Amino acid sequence: MSRLRTSHAFGWASKLRALVGGCWQRQGPRRSFKIIDSEFRIELESLLRRGEIQRFEKLARHRCDLYGMRGNAAWQRRVARAQLKENSGFADIYLYHRDGFIREEALRSIEVLDGPIAAFGLLARLNDWVPEVRDAASATLARCFSTSSGDVLAPAVWAFLTKRHLWNRWSGGYEPFVEDVVKHCGLVDALSVMLLGVSRKGASRVFRVLSRSPAFDTHLTAIASDAHEPHLRAAALTCLSKARVIWPLAIRKKVWMDGPMGKPVWREAFGSRPLTAEPDLIAAIANGLCDRSVLVRNAAIDALILHRDNAKFRPLIAKSIKEPEAEPRPSTRMRLQYLARQVTLD
């Protein structure tokens, strides 16, 4: 009998502890959201600017316990809504939460993108696995993108343009987003400054996107002389020499060949526009002839070949074709020999 009473009492005690524990848990999540300080935000932004996206997301979720919270999901959502109403600064971190309801609530609470963390979180939610979150992200992007600073958007947009081929759930389409990027002059300026810096993955893709914007023309001279990547310097110099910017359209068009079988060939389509700025082309070509990269030097010689009939370029041509046989690079030597045959100096 005593054993029955003991077991019965133990059962009631366990139920009482569970009830008390449940009431205690309703005061807040078992693992509460950690408020991050400014140093941690700086660390996250530095990872984002360096393009370490996976490490950035993992660190944000781990440090803030965004995927390890336990307890009542509905209560956690109420706590998140209360925190977002009290302080909208939580929204940029809640964009990476495991719960789609909290991510959606964070998106609806954003009025201004005040940092790269929020900007990248917004773009990442456009590829979210929950359709309702993607719709909320599209509405937030339409509301906040044009009014946000270019310096804030630049790291996130760079990361998206680099990885957009991996985002198959992108809502709204890639081309409309590119049009928004091109129209944002502050963002074009910020991305152009990033092209001048250290080597970054996806620089060619960003260069092609920025080529659609007339605001990018004023940065071509600086890119042709100071960009870290040689192919960017060569591409910018080619645009300056031709006074025209060309970019691929990510589509293919059918071209009929004049062969005996008449088979069509699919070729990549390109868009183009004339330059809106008038750069100092002579100085740009002279700088390219002295470049350390053979790719840039070849682009400078191609520019001289293109403008060989212009008298302003005769001093540069005479200086470059003095000893074409001494050039060790075959590609450069052949260009110089062709230029020497085409030009008759007085």
UniProtKB/TrEMBL annotation:
Query: Where does the source fall among the domains of life?
Result: Bacteria
State the InterPro entries in the record.
ARM-like (IPR011989), ARM-type_fold (IPR016024), Cohesin_HEAT (IPR026003)
Show the stretches that span the lipid bilayer: none
SUPFAM superfamilies of this UniProt entry? ARM repeat
Q: What is the name of the protein in this document? A: Putative sister chromatid cohesion protein
Species, as recorded: Silicimonas algicola
